[in-house]
Model the fold of this input.
Amino acid sequence: MLDCTQQPSREELEDGYKKYADLTRAGKRSEAKAWHVRGTKLPEHMLRLTTGVLPADKVVAAAKRYGVSVTELLTAAYVYAIHQYQQNTDPDAKKPIKVSVPVNMRSFYPTNTLLNFALFVNVGIDPSFGRFDLEEIIREIHHQLRRGLNKKYLNAMMAANVLSEKNILLRMCPLFLKNIGMLMAYNVWGERQFTSTLSNIGVIRVPDQMQQHIERFDFLLGQPRMAGINCAVASYQNITTVSLTSNIIQSDVEREFFRCLVQMGVPVKVECNY
Done:
């Protein structure tokens, strides 16, 4: 917790990307286009929210049974739920299902910056190889995330972004052209490369004096532009909340996701705004 009466330190405003990126090891952004969850769109500016309230210890126990982390388990269950929806609505789909998992770069570099300092690892399955069961997906997600959470691999992604920012031609462009260029780049390298996002903010800790006033934390992602549905996870004491935000009417993915968790032995209390 920061004291708002204190003078901010210089490190709080540090640009972690520029400071730590090794520009001699830049990677490529190109990835195969991903399959997207389609359905009947809700009216504009409406968001459907479904939150599952889970006992954190049960989630941890289920993850241990499969030999994976909590993030890997939840991501695998999420990919499985999307895969079931894909098979039911678009059985001939060949594009991969890829879930984008944010990575907190503060785990790899010593910084106290309060600015954004995260990258994304896309993990999933390719339905062109056939139908996947849950255990196959858990193994796939486990190995893909472990490979992606590699400092050298993450640095290559970070360096590619910083090099674009340092490009002298881009820096000389007027702002309105930059905005057009950013939109075009997002359409090519943005949501087209992943099906959805699952962000796990992890275990939230607060000072002892605050604990009695807090029942739980809910963490929500905004309305997706193309993805159709997003997922966010937060844990506080023994309560884990999994919140799915969607801009379509169909709730098949949410239903299958929580059913999958129940089958793993994790009881779920579901709350929704519809």
About this structure: The chain has a mean pLDDT of 90.
